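Notebook entry, cofactor series.
This is the third protein in the set we're modelling with a bound small molecule. For this one the ligand is adenosine-5'-triphosphate. I'm keeping the input format identical across the series so the outputs can be compared line by line later. Sequence and SMILES below, as received.
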Amino acid sequence: MSNDADRPVCLEAKGVWKVFGAKTDAAIQMSNAGSTRAEVLKATGCTIGVKDVSLQVQRGETFVVMGLSGSGKSTLVRCIAQLTDSTLGNVLLDGEDLTAMDSSSLREVRRQKLSMVFQHFGLFPHRTVIDNAAYGLEVQKVPKSQRLERARDVLSEVGLQGYELHYPGQLSGGMQQRVGLARALTVDPEILFFDEPFSALDPLIRRDMQDQLLDLQQRLQRTIVFITHDFAEAIKLGDRIAIMKDGVFDQVGTASELITEPATDYVREFTEDIPKTKVLTAADVMSAPTDTAMSGTVHASDTIESLLPVLLKHGEPVGVVDASGQTVGIVNRAAVADLLAGAQ
Amino acid sequence: MTATVPTITPSVDSHTLRRWGPLAGLAAGAVVLQVVFGASENFPARWDTTFAAPIDDAGNWLRANRQTHPVFTGFFTPLRTVVDAIINAFTDILLWLPWYAVLALAAAVPARVRMYRAAATIVGALLYTGLIGFWEETMQTLALMSTAVFLAVLIGLPLGVIAAFRPGFEAALRPVLDVMQTVPAFIYFLPLFMLFSIGNVPGTVATLIYALPPVVRLTTLGIQSVPESAVQASEMYGATPRQTLFKVQLPMAIPSIITGLSQTIMMALGVVVLATLVGAKGLGSPVLQSLNQRRTGRGIAAGLAIMAVAMVLDRMWKSAAERDPLKRHDRRTLLGVLGAILVAITIGRFASVDTFPEVADWTLFDPVDDGVVWIRDNLRWVTRTFNDTLVTYAFLPARDLLSTTLAWPVVVFVTGWACWRVKGLGFAAFSAASLLFIGLIGLWDEAISTLVSVLIASALALAIAIPVGIWAGRRPKVEAFISPILDGLQTIPSLVYIIPVVIFFTVGVVPGIVATILYAMVPGVRITALGIKEVSTESLEASRTFGATPRQTLLGVRIPLAAPTIMAGVNQVIMMSLAMVIIAGLVGGGGLGFQTVVVLKDSEFGLGFEVGAALVLMAMILDRFTEAAADKMQPHRSAT
Ligand SMILES: Nc1ncnc2c1ncn2[C@@H]1O[C@H](COP(=O)(O)OP(=O)(O)OP(=O)(O)O)[C@@H](O)[C@H]1O
Ligand SMILES: [Mg+2]
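Returned structure with ligand:
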């Protein structure tokens, strides 16, 4: 998880709407005039899936969309991935408008740049694990030996060596999703979409998969749009998190921004149960550096939990350094105590 | 019930009205029509506007121009030549090969993917046909059926694919497929016979027509039931629609398509015997011959041979579709086996041991005849009583009620009313118009007679099938025992049923009805058992938790929950009854079946068309009606 504000924007959605039903214009008008989803449904028979969502994802960033069931997350990611046509709005990828492309250019973009991991895996039950993983290259007509070699490498990377000739039906859920992940990685995409990929897995395997994803991301630095309904997962994986409710983004920000400055009560409800010491970092509690002698240093990205022992052992203030080792601030006990008190 | 409720609100009134109104309307309408039209007893003959003449003319024209007209010289004749050549070449190859090579090659298909049981079944089935002296006929039938099934796939697969992607096309195709399948195969013969003249081809094409609908339907179904996520995954990786179709949708539809092919083979079987009537070679001839000679044993011998062909084809298809590379033998082994077979063929050809050794023939089954004759002679009082009772107390009264006592408008009205109740006004109009049409072409009495036979046979078949099905559905052991028997019964050509029945009951309506009961019972038992078995254990346990007795659980939970499925079985029983009753015309069942026989014997093209139309309409009414009734039983419908 890194958070450089100045990386180039890679994927951008501008005013995306998705309305299910026939009278989309009327529905959009009503919704713009302030009617709720339920009212729009009753009056027009249309369901507002996504309402005027805009977002920007930077290259190498993991952007998480978090929301409860029915909030429109899947619909949004499908609009962005162009699996469904959005009713209004544009989706730009490296400055190119996906919504304006014909199907063959879109196909080309998909082959070059996109991949997706599905909630229910979406594997091909009639193909072996390795043929599943090699599918993206197969449709690009990459020669067989080459694509199988690549698929084999990726499979061993996700821990599936030895299972190449099995069928998906012979694997456990966690292993199946690894196949899904391998299939997405084999094509070496620029952008990866994940639609609740780990929701169907049990907690231990889910944590395992999350760690594996973090690990991969550390090495590969892909741009990721990740959908989840689990706030803990969002915090663990996301550089920035969008909280979605009833088809709109309530708030977009880093985990600590959401926790320290929740924009709505809805967001606050989510953040309340989160152990703050595990999420907030030294950067969130530091103050401007002073001349006082510092009794130790921590990194700006260290969590409160990990800086507490330093603070308690060495006395205050503790210096905070950034990635390049430059001192950017100090932390003292009072600031941490205030934060923890506010958390109760 | 409403009387005990003191508050009489308008809603109770409208409820009562909704409930009893239609019934009152029915009674009133029927009485009025009966009073008005009761005097004229039959469908007025003077209205009889037969359109047989122009069609007869067309038929004569066909006959006269078969040699010369471009439609024939440019289309039908070449088509006939090609199909005929395929079948003949295939037959020749099968007969040229030493018999054991055919066995080995056929068995190699499943053995290749280690399906040894299927291989053993194939070997056993083919050995049987050879031992019983039908090797040549079996090869002929095998060639004809494979050609028909192959053509069915060749045509049906693309149609099914198109239908899966174009809802408009599917909507247009569906009624056509329905009709193709509901029309008894018999009906196709005459026009096909006219177009292709005598030989293998009309039979093949009739088989093809019959076999096509399951392939198309199950291809469409298979493609449509591929999970959306798999299709989208494919799209997401930049697959073209073509790539998605060939790499994802079609392969994932294969199990469904295989099911379609199995059904196709079953369908094709029944037609094979009938195809003999229009000159096809093969196992149909011994069946017809034994029917003529009234030799039950030989009929069974030939019927079993047809069943064997079905089994061979079925196992070969299923194993050919097995794609699992882990199960496949490696190439070296395959080449080795193939080489060995080639050597054996060469040796066999040189040593002239190519024809199946004459060990026995179908006279092996003659003792069965003695049993049948014994039963006939000693149980005559049973069969006679049964025959007389059925005729005097069921068939005649019902037929007289419908064709003489009740005026024809009453029959039309009541039918329309019932159709309206189960499906709606459109269907009611269709049914009424159809009945009227049948009357107008002068087939009213025949249609009524056929209908009565169908209804009696269906009712009796269901009276046996439903209890047996419930029993089998509750007891896995019973099911395991009767399931293979049912499989067999369903594969034996319908004509074989007729032979012993004719011996017991001589000729008339009853043998037809009895054969129909035997034949139509099978799907009834099967589907009822399925419905009973499908009821979720959770519902059953819930019932038991409340302390319900097994009987209460059965009557209160199991049967109601299984009712829609059972109703689907009723539909099948009725449709099979109709098809069988037509065939029963061969043994004097009367009605439309008898007309069919006349048509085929005298090549009466116009009459054939009329009889065909009447049968199609009746089949459609019965099919839609039972289907709609089954639909109405779906819990989610009745709940709303
Ligand atoms: N094809 C469709 N037709 C009509 N309405 C739809 C369709 N797909 C989704 N919706 C509606 O859009 C809304 C958002 O659905 P969506 O699947 O995007 O939710 P989600 O946030 O992904 O939920 P979950 O966490 O359960 O997957 C829901 O109210 C749903 O009923
Ligand atoms: Mg979703």
